[in-house]
Amino acid sequence: MKIRNLDLTRNPINEEHRQLGLPPVEEPVSHPGTHPLLRAAVWFTALVLIALTLFLMGRLFLPNNWVGGLKIIGETLNGGVFWSAVAVGFFAQVVDGALGMAYGVTATTFLLAAGASPAAASASVHIAEIFTTGVSGISHAKFGNVNKQLFVRLLVPGILGAVLGAVLVTQVDGALFKPFVSAYLLLLGIYILSKAFRQLRLRTRAPKHVGKLALFGGFVDAAGGGGWGPVVTTTLVSSGNDPRTTIGSVNFAEFFLAFASAAVFALLMETNTWPIIAGLVFGGLFAAPFAALLCKKLHAKTLLILVGTLISVLSLYNLYRALAA
Question: Which of 61, 151, 172, 280 pairs as cysteine with 128 (C-beta 3.0–4.6 A)?
């Protein structure tokens, strides 16, 4: 029998727990620095972000020298593809920042509508997500929003599902797979839309099959270009888990999923979508303050209706184009 080391201080998390009728948070959750595992995960994430940034800069400047590298940057900035990706990344991050989910779904839906293949869209989104989820995960860990036990239970099955999904989408012909991806995104859009008209009730029991849920969420996220947040976060919160630590744990685990699936995409397919990836990252970085403002000004129900409707309409359009081709 596990002896829980509860934090009985009057901190903001415990105040939220009291209002929801939940027990006090555990000491390791409210003070994440005491967990060697979370400290190691934070350091690993930071090192990966630094290493990836240096790698991309080296790949750009070393073969082409500084003059050639700057020329490539200038050509990218003058291209319509980059600025389209900036707009997509900005809007997707606004959605994700306001709702806590749906970055991948939104970005992938727009890229498919622009004519990208499912593999190229998913690869671009997941490589870009390494940066966004990495910074988000570190922030959640530092603010005590990560539950170590839930994080560990999500991690390995989620990575396995992401690898399997990435392998599938790179081995199946894009034209054949596109209708299925569009249909999946349509269902996900309808699901997000339905959340605006129903209230999720907290239950007393925690979910039993977290590993299976993470496996499925990781698979559909990599294969469909999104879905980890809507599938995993919504299920866990509706099953009675604390919203704050659920969102933090799921977001931090998503970095490792994005890293694993991006590695598979890099190994199994030729990644020539760097202007799209750069645009998604660039747009996402500038969207964070606007997302916070939007989240403050607009009601959550309004945001859910807008996002669900937009994703559903675009997915219907993508599905029509795929079936008519």
Answer: 280
